Amino acid sequence: MDANVFNPAPQSQWNTQNKRTLAVVDAVWTCLLRVSLGLFILLGPYTQAAPTSTHLPGEDDAAGPEELVTPGQLRTGYNYLTKYGFLPKPDPVAGSLRSQAEFYEGIRAFQTFYGLPVTGTFDTRTAQLMALPRCGLPDIMRDDDEDGRRKRRYVHTGAHWDKQDVTYRITNYSPDLTRSETDEAIASALQLWGDVIPLNFRKLEIGTADIEISFARGLHRDDYPFDGPGGTLAHAFFPGDDLGGDAHFDDDERFTVKAYEGTNLFIVAAHEFGHSLGLGHSSDLSSLMAPFYQGYKPNYVLPYDDHVGAQSLYGARPGSVPSRGGNTGGGAPGPPDRANPTSEPETNPSCRGSYNAIAKIRGELMLFKGKTFWRMLEKGHPLEGYPIDTDRFWDQLPTKVDAAYERIDSKILFFKGASYWEYSGTTRDPSFPRPIRELGLPNDIDAALPWGETGKTYFFKGDQYWRYDEMERQVDMGYPKSVREKWDTAVPTNMDTAFRFVDETGTWYTYFLRNKKYWQFDESRGKVDKGFPRSFDVDWMGCPEPASNLVEDSTSRADVVVEPPRTEKMIGSGADSARGLSYLTHISLLVLCSWMLTG
Questions:
Q1: Which one is predicted more confidently, 355 or 343?
Q2: Binding-site sequence positions for Zn(2+)
Q3: What is the DSSP string of 534-561?
Q4: Active site residues
């Protein structure tokens, strides 16, 4: 056998070959590193996983439950949310522990009920609202609705007095006021309701009355003790036997009349008597039946929300329907006088022409067309007796408004041309109309869409939209933007109006209208549902099916973007293509490197 097989090559020859091999390997790895880095930079955005959710325009990332609260806040929050119906009462038999996750669910229910941004955390605005003096009655009856949603803002229990003459008696008096001051405040608070419903209230000096009124401290003759100054001011019971209808006032409060200091007896009593009549709490913070103390308000008139709620139980007192120049306190107009009707058109007016504006106001859908409007509580069921003229309801409101919406502070805004109007209920605020340019918005807007959870309102015109911050009272930076940029490209531009509505399952949708057609935008997916557009008149107003329900004319299609939306599936497909390209490129590099090593 050749000895050279076992003898290493001469040192100089080995060094030369080794250096050449190391140089080739170093070159190959440098090549691979540079190309791989380049591929990562170029293809990285395409190879990332597709997003798992779609953020709706204007939504900010809310702080999550990981933002923990202190034990004291947790205990206080639990007690409050349980007392007022946002959490179920703990089971004393099971003795189950309550988790922070349950606490956050209760916070979300509270925020949803009162129209606050739904952060799910014990934030400043939530804490401030919870700290206000208030009525002791729960906001949510646990057998009614477990998550805080309401189909309408006013809430009634179904309990009511089945007679027109209701008696009341003041069993004792507050030391803060004279008897005559207390008598006058109580009588005025009852008459506030008596002005709009067909009930008569009669005071008894002795005997048993339907509504027994008393002042007490701490533990008294029910299971709901008072808590001293502040906190719970009073509570009342719904119509019924025994305690039914009775109203109790915390005598640790300093009650006053016709004064801003102290606790105004009239406003507290008027709220409690709403319960005595059968009304629950309202989520409309401007409503008398909102649970929080509102303070002294001279010349107080019953807000619209409460007017509608009371009349839903008892009907209207003759002459209580607000009209132009009449009661501006706000109330639901009754149907037109059918004994002397105006000339009836040959076809249903709801089936002729497009709507100028549609808005969710006080929990109801209000649809504006020309000088008239309709009201609707459920899809496909406009209220009987409508349309009626807008000026029977909103004094000095122009006809053919461009847009309308209810702001988070319960003010109602209308837009037309270069001006906008602001109403408190049905009463126009005296400093309006004002120029729309003050808001940083263009004239002649197409639609206004409030997004209550974020405190933002979207304004649309043509193919652009503006996002307006209701808290800062200004348009957000970076706007206007193209509708195609954030919304589904199937959403129409140059729309007639837009509104949000919740279906019977509690799911929220946004609806866009144009030329009597509507598009249903699924807020959870951030996309227009399949099968749209459809006929608004057929689906919502009960009109007969037109000859061609789903075909738009060429004019209405002219400005619809027909390119497909960038869906998650498309993003995923792009990622697959990019990964395939990356794989082939690396195979090619391996072949190249092999050639270099053997070259």
A1: 355
A2: 135, 220, 222, 235, 248, 271, 275, 281, 289
A3: EEHHHHHH-PPPPSSSS---HHHHTT--
A4: 272
Confidence of residue 572 (pLDDT cuts 50, 70, 90): very low
What's the rounded Cα separation, in Å, for the pair 370 and 348? 14
Average pLDDT over residues 189-199: 94
Query: Residues 316, 457: contact at Cβ < 8 Å?
Result: no
Q: Where are the domains of the chain?
A: 71-131, 165-314, 349-551
pLDDT of residue 375: 84
The 10s digit of each residue's pLDDT in 43-88 is 333 333 333 333 455 444 333 333 445 566 667 777 888 888 888 8
Report the pLDDT value the prediction gives residue 472, as an integer from 0 to 100.
Answer: 85
Residue ranges of alpha helices (H) inside 236-286 are 265-277
More confident residue, 150 or 385: 385
Give the model's pLDDT for residue 11.
42
* β-strand partners of 382: 376
Residue 595 contacts by C-beta under 8 Å, 6 or more apart in sequence? none
Which tokens go with 31? 């090549």
Rounded average pLDDT over 412-419:
93
Token pair recorded at residue 559: 């400005």
- Taking alpha carbons only, the member of 437, 410, 438 closest to residue 426 is 410
Q: Give the pLDDT of residue 363.
A: 75
* Beta-bridge mates of residue 234: 135, 249
Residue bearing tokens 């789903």: 550
Residue 159 has pLDDT above 70, yes or no: yes
Domain 349-551 CATH (choose: 2.110.10.10, 2.40.10.340, 3.30.420.40, 1.10.10.10): 2.110.10.10
Among the CATH numbers 3.40.50.1820, 3.30.420.10, 3.40.390.10, 3.40.50.720, which is that of 165-314? 3.40.390.10
Q: How buried is residue 249: exposed, middle or buried, by Cβ count under 10 Å (0-12/13-18/19+)?
A: buried
CB atoms near residue 292 (< 10 Å)? 17
Binding site, by residue number, is: 135, 176, 210, 220, 222, 227-228, 235, 244, 246, 248, 250-251, 253, 271, 275, 281, 289, 358, 402, 404, 448, 496
365: phi then psi, degrees, rounded to nearest 5 = -90, 125
Burial readout 545-576 (b: 16 or more C-beta within 10 A, e: otherwise): eeeeeeebeeebeeebbeeeeeebeeeeeebe
DSSP element (H, E) containing 418: none
Task: Go through the chain and tell me how many residues it has.
Answer: 599
Closest-CA residue to 537 (of 295, 279, 351, 291): 351
pTM for the structure as a whole = 0.46
